[in-house]
Input
Amino acid sequence: MPKGHFVSAGASLEYGAADCLFPVEELDAIVHQYRDAQLALDDVDGASVIVVAPTNFASSYRLTQHALTAIPVESLPSAIRARIADAIDASLETFELVQIGTWNGSGSDHSLAEFADA
Output
């Protein structure tokens, strides 16, 4: 599943409404990035994922440049959960993760140890 749950997501959150999630490094929440994010997304059904969706070309570029990120909804501070709940058309309790960015790699992950004999 190269793009995570971007197509099968249960809800989307417009980039502008997701400003409370940026910068993710400053969130007081559990934040999975890169391969850890992909593993977290692989463990859940797409219907339980909220994706941050672009609203224009600039936000699309920003999101494709952003590291794949998965944030457990339950780990978000209550104020941020409330803002997200107000911005989506479904009950927040039905979602497990918020996805930011897409998985851009098409190949499998490799360990540097694999290249030791090269």
Helices lie at 35-42, 57-65, 78-87.
